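Per reviewer request, we include the raw input and output of the structure prediction for the construct analysed in the revised manuscript.
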Amino acid sequence: MSIKRLALCRSQGRLFVLLRFVGQDIAGLIEREGSQTFAHATTNGVCVPSLSLPVDHGRVLALCPSVADYERELLVLVLPFMDGSAIDVSFASGGKRLGSIRLDSRIAKLESKINYKAKPAMCALIRDAQRGECCGRYEIDVVRYLPADEGAVWRYEVKWAGDPQCAPELQIFDTHMNAIDATVHVFESQVDVLQQNGCRVNKAYLSVEMPLDIRDFVAIVSDPTEQTQSGFCAMDGRLYNGMVDDSWNRMKDARADDAAYRRWFEQHRAKPGDLACQCVAAAAFAYRPLVSIVVPCYKTDRVYLRELLDSVLSQSYDNWELLLMDASPEWDAVAKLAADANDERVHRIELPGNGGIVLNTNAGIEQATGDYIAFLDHDDILEPDALFHYVAALNKAAEGERPQVLFCDEDMFQKTGEWGQPVFKTKLNVDLLYSHNCVTHFLMVEKALIDRIGMSPEDVAGAQDYDLTLRSLAAGARFEHIAHVLYHWRVHPGSTADGSADSKPYAIEAGRLALQRHFDALRIHGTVEETETPFVYRMRYALPEPAPLVSIVIPTKDHVETLDACVMSIAQKATYANYEIVLVENNSEDPETFAYYETLPERVAAASEGKGIARVVYWPGEFNYSQIINFGVEHAKGDYLLLLNNDTEVISPDFIEEMMGYLQRPDAGVVGAKLYFADHLVQHAGILVGVRGALAHANQDFSAKREGYLARAARPGNFSAVTGACQMVRRDVFDQVGGYNEEFAVGFNDADFCLRVWEAGYRTIFTPYAELYHYEFTSRGREEANEEKMCRWKREQALFMKRWPEFFLTGDPWLGSNLSSESEYLLI
């Protein structure tokens, strides 16, 4: 029998080959023998998965009417594209050999390129042969590539029609069909999901941890019961590169692309016409404070100082004075440039010697006559509208309510005009400030406030701006963030702009000391420690003694294995000495569940060595998460409440101590943990409100060590909300806001709770130092998989938007107005 190859194309890691079996009713043969028993494919004698599919005869005839005489002789052969290999395929029916073909990957690449140009419609036709064909077999597609700290993670979607109990098993092979030692996690199973074509299928979402970041491989999904035929997909270099690019583009942040940032900046910076208008508006300000700009100068580079001076002289707000504190008069740069400026607002003040950055700065503060003191480094540059925006903010506030500490967005540069690495800030993020100085530039402080709190001591040299910011915060100062890039921070040897410890190693201890004194002044007990990252700190809060009771409230229904993993991870790992586990039983049906409850108290007491106890309370109503939480809290006895999902598992033994530590501060309201999927990628690191019209988990799918924009995935910080999968709150705060809002039966209740706590005057805090796994959707399933659940979710979304419209109109204050509300990765 003659086998003719009519067309070939390559797509999504697969080869699609249109074949004609001359004189053979191939369509009938496939119907009788199935799509996988007809063809046998090998490479170097090792079996390769294949699929034989009938063609869409109507579309074939429309494209090529001449095939009418042999349309039933056509089939589409699907194979994995295995770069650098040749695949031999033999065809047989009823023990009779029908023929064979050989496909060389190098020739297939070229042929595919030619066909896409010459026969694009035919290529689309044969590619579509597989689409939606999941009757009796698995259909598998790679959904996403995600970089891991070691290797890579691949997410897959598997679809099939028929028995939902046919749980797919996935294996990974290299291009020689050798098995790769990969770890497969079942993320979620969905049953009877309606498709766009009106058919219903089952779905499974799988995550595969690959030990190495491998480019070429084959994924085969099979059914151990052999009720469902296996399916496959493959990864090749072209598809791999595309998936990597997609992942990078999806997860990039505002610092990922300096060229894109420069384009953005040029669009948003003040133009000459804007500056002219600002000059007129500034002259009409009702409040025109004198701003004293203090610049400590020591062996200052002449070019750098010239650029600084030009940036100050070009300010559109004119009521300022520039104090150049010259600690190295033997270098004539400061004296000459000040004289050349020929502006009475520019003052060079010669110091008797170099007293160091703190004494030189303090001398400038003493000489200043302004209402506000602004601090500018001798090698940095201001935008011409910096002072205008600051004074405009002062004029927007009523007298007596004006901001006392102001700061703005900034970027970095080595050569003027080549701006990059933007730092888009938010309103004062206190807990991020407690890990590193996230305020930095352009710091402007009310002179009366400095007079009240005093100037910085010498032992915080190198961190004097951090010290002043912290002491202002401790004094209850009003802070204002100016959401414009108005400060350019120069990167050069000796600068701390790159975060290197080599430039000013003494400044690391100075920052730690400033932060420790801040907590001491607030009478918050604990110890500030340095971390492995220079200029980054961690506060270890002291806990009350004796240890107060923590009530861990866990709603649960059946899924005993999942629940037991959660409970026993607490009992076996938690180091906290006094807790109770309150299971809130919600209409379980499995007798095994109730038998489990009988033995649980004794098992927890034994496993925890007396540190914890467990009991069960029974919620009699239908499922309403908020009602269940409130019911559990009513029966809880602790002064601290840990609201926990039953599909979590402890990683950090001291997670209770870590979360409780923040709650020793009177300003702390809700504390959330860092949660991971089973594949060790981030599930939760804070929630942003209003992103894509709902809620978004910031930096989801990051690897554990990946810090993200401004390190917000790896350092404590404030967010609008943290997930209810693991929240800790003091009972008095929970009671003050009335607990969870029971109008939110399933979704949005955790975020609504956090926002009501924020509305009551408390902070919501994310800590990366309390780590747990969260096997999301294991026990409840995703809303998208169920029409009824999806309708309920949309109702609750509408209710949430009605309750908190400002987050959807003006954006999440912890995201910042310059970052996109369409990305959870803090993108411009």
